[in-house]
Amino acid sequence: MYDIIINGDTVEEMNKLPPNSVDLIFADPPYWMRTEGVLHRFGGTEFDGCDDHWDKFSDQDSYNEFTKKWLLACKRLLKPNGSIWVIGGMQCIYSIGGIMQDLGFWIINDVVWHKKNPTPNFKGTRLNNSHETLIWATQSPKALYTFNYKTAKELNRDTVTDEEFRNGVRKQMGSVWRFPVCSGRERLNDESGNKLHNTQKPLELLERIITISSKIGDVVLDPFGGTMTTGVATKKLGRKYIMIERDEKYCKFGKIRLESTQFQNSDLAKSVFDEKPKKVTVEEMIRDKYLLEGEYFYLKDKSPVAVLCPDGKLLYQNQVLDMHTCVALAKGVKADRLNGFAHWYVERNGKLVPISEIRENYRNN
Ligand SMILES: C[S@@+](CC[C@H](N)C(=O)[O-])C[C@H]1O[C@@H](n2cnc3c(N)ncnc32)[C@H](O)[C@@H]1O
Questions:
Q1: Residues with beta carbon inside 6 Å of ligand 1?
Q2: Whole-prediction pTM value?
């Protein structure tokens, strides 16, 4: 039962789904904003914050009880190697994080989403609240969760300048992300032209999360679907979605949004940057004449010399050894083996060429 929107209460609906059936969860729960009175912008117009009925709770205990229930339901659905992202503001993220730890979730990272265009603090009474926090966690410290590390590097524009990025500079993705809040054409309107949802998240945020922490074909669940941003990112990236939302209106508009979304095949979607290179043996390279039986293998300083045998081993000082054992011996290193591909060279057109380069050519061809 995938690629569906379920209209109903999240805990009830999650409890109907089979256990251990979801690879990734993104949860954007009610923040319990506790907004009171009417806020005015600097120019005097009213500010439309989040004072929706679904965001109201009587006290901290009832919010905690609700949080515990939906997190437990998520825990039952998550596969042992799956992972969960929860987003929240200062009003709720500390209690949510505490409950997650009480329930045995293992926190991998907390991420700060730094908003490029935050809502100002109209009254000027405290700091402008310009970030939200995401918690990324697994069921247990031993979970072998998906992290497309190299794909994340490929996506990272937070810690490299545009010029560096154009020049091919890639750096590890950090835990501070910079996106604007959802606005302009991305923001959905209802039939009367009014903002459909007060807390629609930017698609870019969800695309990043899904790209780095799931694989093509994985099942992604969002227990608080809203405008179905998670479903849209999931479909675009070739994963399968399960979206739960209690409000019929959001489901109706979200369905239209999802129907007009297509899978967009790309290297990022397929996480090709994280694919392990195909294993290549020396024998295969001899068979296809990339290496020649009887030719000399050199170290970088052109000494000492070993001879390549037909079975891919090396003849060195009257011993026949695999090239990894041989290089350790030739270099006089204490280790039993070194990676031969990192140390041996052969001669091509009068120049020494690393055999790793020859292997790369072989792979590419
Ligand atoms: C913070 S919003 C999610 C916004 C969404 N991420 C987006 O980009 O549009 C939370 C949503 O959860 C829904 N919700 C709140 N309590 C719920 C419950 N018990 N069951 C199902 N949905 C619920 C609300 O109607 C609201 O749309």
A1: 9-10, 28, 30, 54, 197, 199-201, 224, 226-227, 229, 244-247, 250
A2: 0.83
Phi, psi of 194 (to 5 degrees): -90, 155
At 287, the pLDDT band (50, 70, 90 cuts) reads very high
Q: Whose CA is nearest to atom 5 of ligand 1?
A: 226
Strand 78-88 vs strand 106-115: parallel, antiparallel, or unpaired?
Answer: unpaired
pLDDT at 41 over 70: no
Same domain, 178 and 111: yes
What distance in Å separates the CA atoms of residue 78 and residue 242, rounded to the nearest whole number?
Answer: 13
Q: What domain range includes position 331? A: 282-364
Same domain, 150 and 286: no
Q: Which two tokens stand for residue 51?
A: 């004072």
- If one compares 38 and 290, the residue with the highest pLDDT of the two is 290
User: Which residue among 206, 224, 257, 261 is best mutated to probe the pocket of ligand 1, counting the most ligand atoms within 8 A of its Cβ?
Assistant: 224
Both 103 and 172 in one domain: the answer is yes
Report the alpha-carbon distance of residue 143 to residue 146 in Å, rounded: 9
Whether 167 and 311 map to the same domain: the answer is no
Report the pLDDT value the prediction gives residue 12, as an integer from 0 to 100.
Answer: 98
Domain identity same for 245 and 106: yes
**Cβ 222 vs Cβ 246: under 8 Å:** no
Task: Kindly state whether residues 221 and 259 are assigned to the same domain.
Answer: yes
Tell me which of 229, 250, 274 is where a domain ends: 274
